[in-house]
Sequence to fold (195 residues):
Amino acid sequence: MNEIFLKRPAVFFDQDGTLSEWRWIDIEYVKKEGYFKSVNPHANVIDSSRILKMWGIPVGTYGAAWLHDGHSVRDKNWWMDRYAPHIDIENRIYVPCGSEKVEYFYEMVGRDITKADILIDDNSDVLRSWEINGGTGIKVRTSENGQYGTWRGFSFRATDDAGTIASYISYVRRIAISSMELIVTGYTPAVSLLA
Fold:
């Protein structure tokens, strides 16, 4: 467990379809050794994560893998070392494929999800689950997803400028932190102005 995530809310990036492209192919092919080494990066999304880290924001990955096949996690880490080495291996969280990501957060991080824990993901269902369980979701829109408009929350395009993406994520994070402070303190500017 990484101490930085235990102490501070973080920005978590999904890997498949978010940091990297997702290909709609037979799942048996996806499960083969070497598949995860072959996918192309979403360079602007990766660069935005690098910028956020330079700004002092805790950054990690939070994604699914076949944990016991002997190669998926190794292949995904190889890919991360090649394209996103600024995200240290201890900041890469993998949960079992097919499971709810939120089910493992406490086990993997050591605390509950907070509003200021941001998940960047390409899957609307995963993002809805993250938000229902207390976090804030941001959808990355790619040529492979976002066709039906079912996600109504925060989003950006994978082709947006990296600096713009990083600024947007930082802005959403500030909103989330402010809403947490409001809950803790009970302070609302509208009430204080009327007092």
